[in-house]
Specification:
The complex is a heterodimer of chains A (491) and B (120). Chain A has 491 residues and is mostly helical. Chain A is built from 20 helices and no strands. In chain A, helix 12 packs parallel to helix 18. Classes of the chains: A mainly alpha (491), B mainly alpha (120).
């Protein structure tokens, strides 16, 4: 029973996904599917919160899953986070899909199954379960990004995503195979012990390089980011939200688990000869390239896609800092939380500003909306301010903790580059505000009218509350992320 | 070490030599290629080809094949369970019930969606 209780977030989602699939195939009306999906996600959230509060100590049967699935507070945190991202995406889909004639019930089942994959990824303690979780997550995401079947852009983006994603999975798998060959283990702890005990062989280093490349692809870090803008732009916006939020969170969970469990020792994590310098270079490239390119975009959706790449860069700074600053992995988790609510809110506001046949895409589409429809523009402004990292929003504290962790670890130049980049980033976020509040639409063009949907409104209210709550009182959630990150200590 | 592989390399060399001899011999002994319009046509079972070459056709067997592969691969998991049935006990039985229930959900979904209808 203890095992069932500990697994209840996963089981809730699995059961809900199966039931919703049946409901969708038997039912004639699709109205309630989004609500049902969001309810399942919230139930998953509540379950992980319940297990968190009860604590995992003394639950019998947990060892029977070792080393395949590790149920610790790190896993529980990511289960809750992925459910939150999934719930927001489901609510947005409930408004977006019917509005744009895309209302097919598969989307909701895909959301749930993809989230199960992400949860498994966060929980996995073995290369095999890790890969199964990764593929469960990725395949659903490929299908969701191709969901606008009539649109060539959607097909193009999804095909790029699928092909490059398959290559990345193959590269990752090649790394796993070499890792197994070098250490004789597939479980992460065993690999970590073997790497610690043995000297660094060339095979381990090649495996590490391949694994880091595969992981960097999944979090869409430069130079493995080429698919991101196309896939994010082509996908229906709720799917983009989900990919930017939950898929990325799952990928970072995998990155922390693999790098810190297998390569968290001094030999492979040292600054002179390990993954941190390579990852630091990737982080610098990611932040700089993404921010410079994002400023040149004419489509707000594409700008937000590049912004999500840039945020991956900031998070990578935190990942690099984990080897020297003990609180760095907690700061990564906190950043993921703030990034989730801000990004979901920003994409949701973009959804709100469009309607059937007139989806808000470019900056011009948003011109003048601030004065005519303040109720739609105000939350958008809040989320963009949070993404830019301006107090008193969640994004500010997310950046603050990452930067502080990097400073504590002695990565001064990395912090300076990240800081300069977040200043550059403010330019294109605030540019949206300029268009919304200070520009009038071009002569003859009408001001966009926001769509009306209870689902989208609910998602925006929820994320706005969380953005403000995390920005004003980050204390409670900081305790949570510190406990969650307690699973990892760099030795 | 290398000596144990020597027969393999010898075999490879002989194979390459024989194949090369065939190619070179065919070039010298065989007839020359004469290009005629008939020869350059796409071959379609020997009959005259007709119609355009960009046809749309419904690939019905594709869906059926995919469904077959999905359910077939999943059914493979039942074999090792059946072999170990006794030692797995009640936990194994209940797990397999769960597994088959998930399969049934998938089957019902395909059925209701009309994926099993050939004529439509």
């Amino acid at each position: 029973m203890g095992l069932m209780f500990a697994l209840s977030p996963l089981l809730t989602l699995a059961l809900g996904a199966c039931l919703l699939m049946l409901a969708e195939s038997f039912g004639k009306r699709r109205g309630g599917l989004a609500l049902g999906t969001a309810m399942v996600f919230f139930a998953g959230c509540a379950m992980s919160a319940g297990v968190w509060l009860r604590g995992l100590e003394g639950l019998e049967g947990l060892d029977s899953l070792a080393p395949w699935l590790i149920l610790d507070r790190f896993t529980l945190f990511f289960e809750g986070l992925l459910c939150l991202g999934g719930a927001l995406a489901a609510l947005l889909a409930g408004g977006y899909l019917p509005e744009h004639n895309l209302d097919r019930g598969e989307f909701y089942s895909l959301l749930l199954f993809t989230t199960i994959g992400g949860m498994m990824l966060a929980a996995s303690g073995d290369l095999l379960t890790l890969f199964v979780g990764l593929e469960t997550m990725s395949i659903g995401a490929y299908a969701m990004s191709a969901f606008r079947r009539a649109s060539p852009r959607s097909a193009e983006g999804a095909l790029k995503y699928f092909l490059l994603g398959s290559f990345a999975a193959a590269i990752l798998l090649y790394g796993f195979a070499l890792l197994y060959g070098a250490t004789g283990h597939t479980d992460l702890v065993g690999i970590g012990q073997a790497v610690r005990a043995g000297t660094k062989t060339p095979m381990v280093l090649v495996a590490l390089a391949l694994v880091v490349a595969g992981l960097a692809f999944k979090v869409s870090a430069v130079p493995f980011h080429m698919w991101t803008p196309d896939a994010y732009e082509g996908a229906p916006t709720p799917a983009t939200t989900y990919m930017a939020v939950a898929v990325k969170a799952g990928a970072f969970a995998m990155m922390l688990r693999v790098l810190l469990t297998c390569f968290g020792d001094r030999a492979t994590a040292s600054w002179s000869s390990g993954w941190p310098p390579a990852l630091a270079l990737v982080a610098v490239l990611t932040m700089t390239v993404a921010n410079l390119v994002a400023g040149r975009q004419e489509s707000v959706k594409r700008m937000l896609a590049y912004s999500s790449i840039a945020h991956a860069g900031y998070i990578l700074v935190g990942v690099v800092a984990t080897m020297r600053a003990p609180q760095a992995s907690a700061s990564v988790l906190f950043y993921l939380l703030t990034y989730t609510v801000s990004t979901a809110g920003a994409f949701g506001s973009l959804i709100l500003c469009g309607r059937r046949g007139a989806e808000a895409v470019s900056y011009e589409d948003l011109a003048g909306i601030g004065r005519r429809h303040p109720a739609a523009a105000l939350p958008f402004a809040l989320f963009l301010v949070s993404l830019a990292g301006i107090p008193p929003t969640a994004g500010f504290f997310g950046k603050w903790y990452i930067f502080r962790a990097a400073m504590d670890g002695g990565f001064y130049w990395l912090t300076i580059i990240a800081f300069v980049n977040s200043v550059i980033g403010a330019y294109y976020y605030l540019r949206v505000l300029v268009f919304m509040y200070m520009r009038e639409p071009a002569a003859g063009a009408p001001v966009a009218t926001p769509m009306k949907s209870g689902y989208v409104t609910a998602a925006l209210i929820l994320s706005a509350i969380l953005v403000l709550a995390l920005g004003l009182t980050p204390g409670g959630s900081l305790d949570v992320v510190e406990q969650a990150a307690g699973a990892f200590k760099v030795s | 070490m290398i000596a144990t592989y020597a027969p393999m390399f010898l075999m490879l060399a002989v194979a390459a030599l024989v194949a090369g001899a065939f190619f070179v011999g065919a070039t010298f002994l065989g007839g020359k290629l004469k290009v005629t319009p008939e020869k350059m046509k796409p071959f379609e079972c020997g009959s005259e080809s007709s119609g355009g070459n960009h046809l749309k056709l419904s690939v019905k067997f594709y869906l059926t094949a995919i469904l077959f592969v999905v359910f077939d691969i999943e059914a493979v998991f039942i074999y090792p369970w059946a072999v170990q049935f006794k030692s797995l006990g009640w936990t194994g039985l209940l797990s397999m019930f769960g597994f088959i229930a998930v399969l049934v959900v998938g089957l019902v979904y395909c059925w209701k969606k009309g994926a099993l209808e050939w004529e439509s």
